[in-house]
Amino acid sequence: MPVILVEYAIGRFTKNSPLLSYRKFMGNYFVWLGGWIVVTAFFISAYYSVIIGWCIYYFFISIAFKELPTTERAGMEIFDQFSLQPQWPVTCQIAAIVLTGAFLFGGVKWIERANLVLVPLLLLILIFTFGWSLTRPYSEVGIKFLFTPTWESFTQPSLWIAAASQNAFDTGAGLSVLLTYATYMGRSASITKYSLFIPMMNNLVSLYASITIFSTVFSTLIGEDGAMTRSAILQIMQKSGPGSTGLTFTWIPVLFSNFGTLGRVLCALFFLCLIFAGLSSLLANIQVYVLAAKEIGVPHRIAVTSSLLACFAVGLPSAIKLEVLENQDNTWGYALIVSGLILAILVVAYNPLRFLRVIINGFGMSDWTVPVIWVAIITVIVPGICVFLIVWWIYDYIRDTEHWYEVTWTSATSTLIEWLVVLTAIVIINLVVLRVKRDLYVKTKRFGADPHDPETYTKEPVVVGDKIWVAEDSNCSVRTL
């Protein structure tokens, strides 16, 4: 919640991308901090388009195949045949990019209308399958296993950082998607309520989904082999695709296969809903760097086209090779922890009490008042957790890995090298732009409010159609959405 609230507050206040927002709050020499957040969103969207492509393929097989897989082996065979033949993942990734481009150019209202039906439908399907999974034989074994902690694992930093990054990805915290959305919000937007309800609803849905998956997996595997142990089942689950992404694609069809024809319909609807939900997320991610490009004067169509092409090009290796996807998932998923730290740094640099008073409570209207305890959370607890997790993770890896310096797809070393390369690049770009003394934000820096100029706090932008009008003295600045 604290990081989500910071994103909402910054976007609503500045009406700018992370790049220009950091310039407004911290000055020209710290634009690279916003650049890190934008770059993280870019790399995540690149491999995320590949996973949406998987959903497209499974929607196809739900309709085209004679029958759904009924066993774990059959489910894994379909997943392996698809993922290990590059032409299929690449084709499906292209389809995902094309659909995203169609919505970006044709208007996001179409996908909004579709999601008004499909997202509630997805929840209904999840609730139905959740209830049904509880009735299956041995489902209680899976549920008991899910809620029985392995205390030794709590001493593994990789568990904590993976959980934190996954939750950040699910809720959008640190991804700057919410910051970008908030640039179109007025002062009456209830960002405090959003910041509370989004993680609550996300975690509730995740809980239902996890119970459904564990019930299905244990019921199916024990039904096939009554002598199978819990550790053996866990090993199978851990091998179900990179980062366990294959769990959904392996086990959901197996679950629906028990319903016959109805199961095929439910399976197709399930993946159709996932496609549109995924496209909505991908659209939001791409808008992050589209907005950043438009702020430096890149025309909308060029910004969108180049963003889509870059997303495809960078995501292509992940479509071709699963190990690359796993590397990107680890590297940029974990980078969300760094992004959370960077957002906290902005608050600390600006003055936490002033941020709370001016940017959140003072600038908002008809919203809950955030208590002062939030200051301690965002200035001490959030940065402390972020730094502790990263340092602990690095230390543990070096201590337990003899050849820790070797670069592999999933090593901490490769993640740190990728971070260092990107960080160096964006810092150099920041310094070069300052060196040539070129102001890239001549027009767009006037949008929104200036956190260091109290006179701008009352100049509330008015949204008219697809444009934002910003009163400035006797003139008006305009930005096309």
UniProtKB/TrEMBL annotation:
Location(s), subcellular: Membrane
GO cellular component, one term: membrane
GO MF annotation list: metal ion binding
Segments crossing the lipid bilayer: 29-60, 88-108, 115-134, 205-223, 268-290, 302-320, 332-351, 372-395, 415-436
Chief location of this protein within or outside the cell: membrane
Keyword Isomerase listed: no
Keyword Transmembrane attached: yes
Name the UniProt record assigns to this protein: Uncharacterized protein
Residues that bind Na(+): N202, S281
Classification via InterPro entries: Na/ntran_symport, SNS_sf
Keywords per UniProt: Membrane, Metal-binding, Sodium, Transmembrane, Transmembrane helix, Transport
Topology versus the membrane: Multi-pass membrane protein
Signal sequence coordinates: none
